[in-house]
Amino acid sequence: MQRQVETELRHRKASKQKVIKRTFFVFIGAIMMALGIEVFLVPNMIMDGGIVGISIILFNLTGIKLGVFIFLLNIPFFFLGYKQIGKTFAFSTVFGITVLSLATSYFHHVAAFTEDMLLATVFGGMVLGAGVGLVIRYGGALDGSEILAILLNKKFPFSVGEFIMFFNIFIFGWGGFVLGWDRAMYSLLAYVIAFKTIDIVIDGFDESKSAWIISDKHQEIGDAVVSRLGRGVTYLNGEGGYSGEEKKVIFCIVTRLEEAKLKSIVEELDASAFLAVADINEVRGGRFKKKDIH
To answer: Cys staple from 50: which of 21, 139, 145, 146, with CB 3.0 to 4.6 Å?
Structure first.
């Protein structure tokens, strides 16, 4: 009975609405990445990192369609993703890379939006990064090097980011010999822009902050946060590690625009209060919705 319950928990199906939403955004993300590649980067001989970067180099060496290389080079990672990360992730990745491969072939005949190298680098990186970020946010990937980095991270003492960096140093170095070192440097700039855009898309513009406040005037501070910021608070029971005294800990979540006001409230009511603020990427459930204040 227990095993059956565990199996049901592990394999619980997503609702139809969630599947449609995930499929839609993975599709849009793949189309955006294809646009970034084919109408900004490839016409100006600028590369991306990872498997897509290798595919661009091979396209320039052989003339075979870019989408063919993107699809074929990613096939081994479909199976790795299925076995090591999960069925939903693997299916989302297969769908995303299939759409990416077909879309790059379709957009290959579209004229470049600009021949200015700097504009192509900046906007190509932004559009590509936004597409990749959407796919990652909705449970997939568009490049097998990320899957390989996750698997290698389990066996070697390097982070996923360090493995991806090693891959891309090799790819951009190879691209420097094939396309020229100026193109390799523009490619590196486009990659950095795409990387930061991915972070923005995944984390969102409305970044939230978690705040922990320890004060003897916890009730006054909590009431002020509720009435003056319109944010709910939670009181936690704590104990001083050195003094052994019982303490009340205030926990609340605010936006980055409200952080300064929160600090001024705490300082105004108890200048000696302990305040710790940290970035958080996502908030769900509970009563995070802001109340009206007057």
So the answer is: 145
